[in-house]
């Protein structure tokens, strides 16, 4: 399955058992604009006037050494941390003033570096958790298994299976998530994020801890997500070969400051980036060569595989 029809969240909750389903327009993916974002903790500046824009439908990578502020940035975007100053706008919404569940309701979904699945639950049950905010029927209808509640559950389960097939984890739907191989668990977590029907995905090191084959499989999945759903992706990743092949734009952080921003090929050659993040070893040169090969390929013929090299973080 190479394409999947996006299903937008409902415009309003429907509580009546026989109420007609609302007609919801196709979702429009807005820009994510981060401007002057500053976060301080007890005198420590974790982010210092950081700014970047994730264009609609693009894959934007946020990179930098450990402690650069990437996770802090993600925590602000998802409502876990409050910004000291600056703004984060997703379309007409200002995210810095919203609680996490309000941000999720706008179509912002996040995965974590450390797997956050319920290991004892089946893969299908984990994915169904991602459908919770899309529930239309009331608690009474669902609890009493009234016809409207049963119909909605069937719709959600059908959508879960479609997303599982799209991501390539459908054969594991009945398996407890904790019994799955690590690489498959990471894809299940991605599938659960997609079950939120997001307009933008915040992916925190989606290939961390994977072997080469698992990284290639995840990269191929991310390509399908972009092509099949047209949503935006903001990616934090240390695998620079993957970033060079997948990203449209890269923003580089160091000690909480933005030190560079641009297409991957330009970023790999930036002396400040090489000094701060890639180092002066042959790894930087290898990634630059990867960027050259990627840029030389026609857009209609995306690269087929992922390299296995990874510079140290």
From TrEMBL:
UniProt cross-references to InterPro entries, sorted A to Z: AAA+_ATPase (IPR003593), ABC_AA/LPS_Transport (IPR051120), ABC_transporter-like_ATP-bd (IPR003439), BCA_ABC_TP_C (IPR032823), P-loop_NTPase (IPR027417)
SMART domains linked: AAA
A GO CC term assigned to this protein in UniProt: plasma membrane
Domain (ABC transporter) ranges: 32-280
SUPFAM superfamilies tied to this protein: P-loop containing nucleoside triphosphate hydrolases (SSF52540)
Pfam families (alphabetical): ABC_tran, BCA_ABC_TP_C
Keyword ATP-binding applies: yes
Keyword Transferase among record annotations: no
Biased composition (Basic and acidic residues): 303-313
Keywords: ATP-binding, Nucleotide-binding, Transport
Molecular-function GO terms, alphabetical: ATP binding; ATP hydrolysis activity
Bias kind Pro residues: ranges: 1-11
Residue ranges, annotated region (Disordered): 1-20, 288-313
Protein's recorded name: Branched-chain amino acid transport system ATP-binding protein
Species for this entry: Actinomadura viridis
């Amino acid at each position: 399955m190479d394409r999947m029809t996006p299903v937008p969240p409902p415009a309003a909750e429907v509580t009546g058992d026989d109420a007609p389903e609302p007609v919801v327009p196709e979702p429009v993916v807005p820009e994510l604009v981060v401007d002057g974002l500053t976060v301080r903790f007890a005198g420590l500046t974790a982010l210092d006037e950081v700014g970047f824009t994730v264009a609609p439908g693009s894959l934007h990578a946020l990179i930098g050494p450990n402690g650069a502020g990437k996770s802090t940035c993600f925590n602000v975007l998802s409502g876990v941390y409050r910004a000291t100053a600056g703004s984060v706008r997703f379309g007409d919404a200002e995210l810095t003033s919203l609680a996490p569940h309000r941000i999720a309701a706008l179509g912002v979904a996040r995965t974590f570096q450390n797997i956050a699945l319920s290991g004892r639950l089946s893969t299908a049950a984990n994915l169904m958790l991602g459908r919770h905010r899309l529930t239309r029927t009331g608690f009474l209808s669902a609890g009493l298994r009234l016809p409207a509640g049963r119909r909605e559950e069937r719709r959600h389960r059908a959508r879960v299976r479609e997303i599982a097939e799209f991501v390539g984890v459908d054969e594991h739907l009945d398996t407890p998530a904790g019994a799955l191989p690590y690489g498959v668990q990471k894809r299940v977590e991605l599938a659960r994020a997609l079950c939120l029907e997001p307009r933008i995905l915040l992916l925190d090191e989606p290939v961390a801890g994977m072997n080469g084959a698992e990284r290639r499989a995840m990269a191929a999945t991310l390509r399908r997500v972009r092509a099949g759903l047209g949503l935006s992706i903001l990616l934090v990743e240390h695998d620079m070969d993957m970033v060079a092949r997948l990203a449209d734009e890269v923003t580089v952080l160091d000690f909480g400051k933005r030190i560079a921003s641009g297409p991957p090929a330009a970023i790999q050659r930036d002396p400040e980036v090489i000094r701060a993040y890639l180092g002066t070893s042959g790894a930087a040169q290898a990634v630059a060569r990867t960027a050259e090969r990627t840029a030389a390929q026609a857009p209609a013929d995306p690269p087929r595989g992922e390299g296995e090299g990874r510079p140290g973080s």
